[in-house]
């Protein structure tokens, strides 16, 4: 839920994220919704979400091994972390799960596949491991 009391829900079956106003039963698609895939207008099993103060939606795109940012009103997303297939390099993610974006725009991603948390400063081409579970 954002600070304007909109509720955001990831729909894993329709590969989309919807935003609901209080009392709204249908919601509107704010990310994905163009079928399963790896295009910039698609998601493949969206799981965890983070919504910033500008109502941009960050989505952990599970099977695409990336985190996407969808600016409010955008028809396509921006890859802000990963997207280079699953792997252990600092340019890759492996099954991203939980996310958090701080006030400087730095993204923190917990990865299921790598058992670690990686930090991606805004605009960076690779992340830095901040916590490694070593399995």
Structural class: mainly beta
Question: N- to C-terminal separation?
Answer: 32 Å
Taken as a percent bin, the fraction of beta residues is: 35-45%
The CATH topology assignment is: Neuraminidase
Protein name: NHL repeat-containing protein
GO cellular component, one term: extracellular region
InterPro entries: 6-blade_b-propeller_TolB-like
Keywords: Glycoprotein, Signal
Could you explain how this protein is built, in words?
- The protein is an all-beta fold and 135 residues long.
- It has one domain: TolB, C-terminal domain (Neuraminidase, 6 Propeller).
- It is built from no helices and eleven strands.
- The strands form three sheets. The chain has a four-stranded antiparallel beta sheet with strand order 4-5-6-7, with no helix packed on it.
- The mean pLDDT is 94.
- It comes from Rotaria magnacalcarata.
- InterPro entries: 6-blade_b-propeller_TolB-like (IPR011042).
Gist?
This protein has 135 residues and is mostly beta strands. It has strands spanning 7-11, 16-20, 28-32, 46-51, 57-61, 66-70, 78-82, 96-101, 107-111, 116-120, 128-132.
Layout of helices and strands, plus pairs?
Blueprint: E1 7-11, E2 16-20, E3 28-32, E4 46-51, E5 57-61, E6 66-70, E7 78-82, E8 96-101, E9 107-111, E10 116-120, E11 128-132
Antiparallel strand pairs: 1-2, 2-3, 4-5, 5-6, 6-7, 8-9, 9-10, 10-11
Short key terms for the protein model shown above:
4-stranded antiparallel sheet; mainly beta; Neuraminidase; 135 residues; single chain
